[in-house]
Amino acid sequence: MTSVTILGKPGCHLCEVASDVVDAVVADLPDAVAEDIEITEASILDDPALNEKWWEKIPVVLIDGELHAHWRVAPDRLRDALLLRAREEAR
Q1: pLDDT exceeds cutoff 90 at 21
Q2: How far is CA 3 from CA 14, 26, 63, 81, 86, in A?
Q3: CA–CA dist 83, 34 (Å, integer)
Q4: Of 58, 86, 80, nearest in space to 70 by CA
Q5: CB burial class (10 A; 0-12, 13-18, 19+) of residue 46?
Q6: Are 82 and 26 in contact (CB under 8 A)?
Q7: Cα–Cα distance measured from residue 7 to residue 17, given in angstroms and rounded to the nearest whole number
Q8: What are phi and psi of 23, to 5 degrees?
Q9: Residues 34-42, mean pLDDT to the nearest whole number
Q10: With 90 as the cut, is the pLDDT of residue 33 above it?
């Protein structure tokens, strides 16, 4: 299972855009890959540690807990990263 976490905060327009990009990319992946992806969203306002670490970089996208992107999410780069992760997990 691959986890994609979107870190943001309420009222953040770029966070909404990042969420839309993640949803669109995952929806466009082959079913076998998309079904193995869990997307979660978290607000930095709910966790002081997240707020301290990421407040000036939101939105932040993590793949399996590792930084993938901040501020803007490139659909092609995200798709490539998720397909690579799926290939690695299949081994």
Answers
A1: yes
A2: 20, 12, 6, 12, 11
A3: 9
A4: 58
A5: exposed
A6: yes
A7: 12
A8: -60, -45
A9: 98
A10: yes
* Nearest-5° Cα angle at 32, 28 to 37: 70
Asked whether 13 and 72 are in contact (CB, 8 A), the reply is: no
CA dist., res. 14 & res. 39, Å (int): 17
Determine the pLDDT at residue 91.
87
5 forms beta bridges with 40, 62
The alpha carbon of residue 89 and the mean position of all alpha carbons in its chain are separated, in whole angstroms, by 18
Residue 41: which residues within 8 A CB-CB, separation 6 or more? Answer: 5, 6, 7, 8, 19
Residue type, 30: P
pLDDT at 16 over 90: yes
